[in-house]
Amino acid sequence: MSRARASELAPPNAAPRLDLAGLKGEFPIFEAQGPRFHYLDNAATGQICRAAAAALVDFETRARANVKRGVYRLADEATQAFEEARARIAAYLGAREAREVVITSGTTHALNIAAHTLCARLRPGDEILLSLAEHHANIVPWQLAAARVGAVIRAIPLDAEARLDLDRLTDLVSRKTKVIAVTHCSNVTGALTDLGRIREAAQAVGALFVVDGAQRAPHGPLDVQAMGCDLYALSGHKLFGATGAGALWIRAELAEELPPFLGGGEMIRRVTIERTSFAPAPHRFEAGTPPIGPALAMGAAAAWLAGLDWQAIHAHELALTERLLAGLRAIRGVRPIGPEGLQARAPLVSFVVEGVHPHDVCQLLDMRGVCTRGGHHCAQPLHEALGLEASVRASIALYNEAEDVDALLEGLEDVVRRLA
Amino acid sequence: MSAELYDRAIVETAKASAEAQRLSAPDVTVEEDNPLCGDRIALDLAMADGRIAAVGHRTRGCLLTRAAAVVLARRAPGADPAELRSAIASLRDLLEGRNGPPAWPELSMFEPVRAVRSRHDCVLLPFRALEEALDRLEER
Fold first, then answer.
1. How far apart are CA A392 and CA B19, in angstroms?
2. By three-state DSSP, how is residue A32 classified?
3. A58: Cβ–Cβ under 8 A, 6 or more apart, which residues?
4. How does pLDDT run across A99-155, given as a tens digit for each residue?
5. Which of A350, A356, A357 to mutate to test the interface with B (most CBs of B within 10 A)?
6. Which of A230, A318, A358, A416 has its CA 20 to 30 A from that of A171?
7. Which member of A360, A376, A380 has the closest CB to residue B62?
8. CATH code of the domain covering residue B111
9. Tens of pLDDT along A280-326?
10. In what order do the strands lie in the sheet with A391-395?
């Protein structure tokens, strides 16, 4: 298995061979939808792989029981399977220990846990540094938590390519900065964040470092230890698992110091009517019945993904991105936004069609079986910073083919003919 | 089905939204957003003798939203609040496939939207603004 880091998402020198037909065959939806199905909305959700679907169905139909409760055989097996899924996700993340992984309902839930539990340590006037490129899921939880303690939100602006302008870190980071929370990969521009520079800035002032990894995680195994962050959030459904599960990695030493977010269920050690003591991490962050089936699916997807040839997949994804960028630039009135090249970017591209609303673009593309996303992509501050209200996004995954990109480009030419 | 959303009537009607003006002295102004895409309408109503005397708007949105705003601005003047609420209800019925023809014949152009549930809010945005404006007028 090749362990991928952000730097490995650079353009390849030579494209290794990839068995694309075999890879695509691992995703049942393509057989179900037929040939006129060009799914380019992977940043919203990836399609489920066979390994994940099998794990979900097997649990729900053959082996279903609640976890961490019963002592009968089925319950014990469910608990073991759940913990095995946790370990598989931990391995995909490059975590030191499985207990560093909290099972959540998704990235949004994970970031809400992060914001709530970290802000409990803050005082009025402390600062939380975000960026203008964040998904709302990495803005709103911090706003809510900051308001409770009187903390102040600040934001890293964008540079000319809509990347985080890290030259501004020296102005923005001070002893007041207690948390820095940024995206690993923009869900609008595909720009990868230089986490190393942010880690240095955070460590210089003792701030905790939170990373929203929702968009980076589907593009190869990670190494959270090398990143030097303290918390890392991701979604199972974007990782080709089922909807309903995600994870929050919390560095082990930190997790034991943090208070829980939600209460109830197996997150306790002892409850009296007056007070409660809490279970150790990760269980203290897993109130109530967790999303067991989706977690098993996420674990199965992570294990399957970890065994793939990521050098070949990166080359494939970036070749498609290059084809897409070149094709978009060749259509009059179509303007890609974000980084111009392939350096430090994930395979997703957003663009505008001058004079045509993104929803109208997406609706007409749908006529050709091309699935894209139009709107602000839950990133209104980023769009505002770019002087836009909305954009169209095409996001590529490991199973996409040149035909998908070409169908999109042909559809856009038709959109321009009809409406621009 | 998607192609029908972009027939000549909708496209031509939507184009007219570029000529829309705001009112200089409205009795009520409402701003309404579509949270899905950030589309927005600012709708002004001026009243006289219990009826709509003038409608102004600025609409930032897709073809469906803009076409709906244009229909509203053309048909609302002269109507009283009860007639307008009836038109709003008839548009909802049209989108849900209920009852007979809409209160305003032009609303029939939105029939193809019925099958595309994710776009109902696009058509309804100006009418949600109208509903809010009428509520505010009644509260006075």
1. 26
2. helix
3. none
4. 999 999 999 999 999 999 999 889 999 999 999 999 999 999 999 999 999 999 999
5. A357
6. A230
7. A360
8. 3.90.1010.10
9. 999 999 999 999 999 999 999 999 999 999 999 999 999 999 999 99
10. A334-337, A348-353, A391-395, A373-375
Cα–Cα distance, A313 to A393 (Å, whole number): 21
For B136, the enclosing helix (H) or strand (E) is helix B120-139
Q: How many CB pairs under 8 A join A and B?
A: 45
Backbone angles phi, psi at A151, to 5 degrees: -80, 165
Tokens of A269: 């050690």
Q: Which amino acid belongs to residue A252?
A: A
CA proximity to A324, closest of A405, A395, A407: A405
Half-sphere exposure of A318 (CA within 13 A, CB side): 24
Q: Which of B2, B60, B122 sits opposite A389 (nearest CB)?
A: B60
Domains of chain A with bracketed CATH: 6-48+309-419 (3.90.1150.10), 53-306 (3.40.640.10)
Peptide bond into B77 cis (omega under 30): no
Q: What's the structural domain count of chain B?
A: 1
Q: Specify the pLDDT at position B99.
A: 77
